[in-house]
Amino acid sequence: MSRLKNDEEYAKTKAFHFFRWMKGTKDPYLDEVEMQPGVPYQDSLTLEEIMAQEQQTMEKVYDTKTNKWIAFFNKVYSVCSVLFCLVLAGIMLYMVASLPRFGTVDRPINNEVPQVYIENGIQDTGAVNIVTGMILNYRAFDTFGETCVLFIATTCVMVLLMKEEEKIRADKSLNDRLYEPKNDVILQNVAFVLVPIVFIFGIYVILNGHLSPGGGFSGGAMIGAGMILYVSAYGFDKMQKFFNENTYKVVKVAALCTYCVVITYYLFMGANDFNNHISLGVPGMIFSAGIILWLNIFVGIEVACTMYAFYALFRRGGL
Amino acid sequence: MDYFMYILLFFLVVCAVAVSFTKNLLNAVLVFMSYSLIMSIVWILLESPDLAITEAAVGAGVTSILFFVTLKKIEAIRKENKDEQTEK
């Protein structure tokens, strides 16, 4: 352990006293105590023996052949669970039947909020597709939260499944692709034709998010699916030539941070009747709708990275 | 168009019930996949193509692939193949 201070100086600091108190070697009232840091409790039995013992006790306790009461309870339990499910389904169906019909005018959701969105949507956001204008302009902060959820989900999967060292990753039990036929001709030929089309269509959906149905999430999911198809056809070695762990880190974190900066700038400068510095352009053009096009791109990158990272982490424990 | 919608909704209910009654895990994932596919057509009929695209890409595509990979990791697919081989 490297310290900036030597031992004598370190003994005077508060950190030294704190850690001495944490370990329990010195008590403030009793002075030196003959107490050592505790070792974790270890049982002499192995895990399988413990599980076998548990199994035996469970079999003794829930012996349905000799204990009539437990057999009776099991029957009542199954009947009651079916009844409970039926009653729950009945309640839900009754509630659905009393909901207002789909598409009628006098529904409670037809209040002033959608009216404002539909009437002022194009003037406020510049987006022809009002749904995208809603989720990436009026409610862009909510979408930022959703993007953060994607980021945190990948981080959690990484914490659980990521293998840090390349040596462990090369182990056969982890990389289950080794059991497959390596060069599947049909899959490779199909992927050779389909992957560029899937990528181009995904990019089209992202870039046209403010003009036509779609947007960052759908287009990103398409690009992610295309990357998964490419990997399953050609393997991780070829994929790593243009998308490896470093690219993933840079692209994903940069997309999230830029989204955060753009939406913060827009919310503080554009909303609440401040002067809006970002021009909305002509509705219907590609470069229009202010920040929506750029936010779509960032969300798309985030989603594509998430989809591919899930697959790669599930498959071989690394990107 | 109404009858088409009713047929789709009927298939939706059949798929949802069939998932829970399927013993084979691989078949359950396939039925779940078809559920997502029918759902994406229903979204188009309800005039929300945004959701239809996302449902087709995520629900029918990526989620099912992740399920397949997970089944392979926990050796739920390979074991069945072994059983078939021993039966032959």
Q: What can you see in these coordinates?
A:
The complex is a heterodimer of chains A (319) and B (88). Helix content of chain A is 65%, strand content 1%. With 319 residues, chain A is mostly helical. Chain A folds into three domains: 1-34, no CATH class; 58-92; 127-165 and 172-316, no CATH class. Chain A has a two-stranded antiparallel sheet. In chain A, helix 9 packs antiparallel against helix 10 (216-234). The longest helix of chain A has 30 residues, at 68-97. Chain B is mostly helical. Chain B has one domain (2-87). In chain B, 89% of the residues lie in helices and 0% in strands. Chain B has helices spanning 2-21, 25-45, 49-73, 76-87. The A-B interface holds A 102, 131-132, 176, 205, 213-215, 217-218, 221-222, 224-225, 228, 307, 310-311, 314-315 and B 46, 49-50, 53-54, 57-58, 61-62, 65-66, 69-70, 72-73.
Q: What are the main properties of this structure?
A:
heterodimer; A: 319 residues; mainly alpha; 3 domains; two-stranded antiparallel sheet; extended; B: 88 residues; 4 helices; 89% helix; flat
Please give the structural blueprint:
The complex is a heterodimer of chains A (319) and B (88).
Chain A: H1 7-12, H2 14-23, E1 26-27, E2 31-32, H3 47-61, H4 68-97, H5 112-125, H6 130-138, H7 140-161, H8 166-169, H9 185-207, H10 216-234, H11 236-239, H12 245-269, H13 292-316
Antiparallel strand pairs in A: 1-2
Helix pairs in contact in A: 5-6, 6-7, 7-12, 7-13, 9-10, 10-13, 12-13
Chain B: H1 2-21, H2 25-45, H3 49-73, H4 76-87
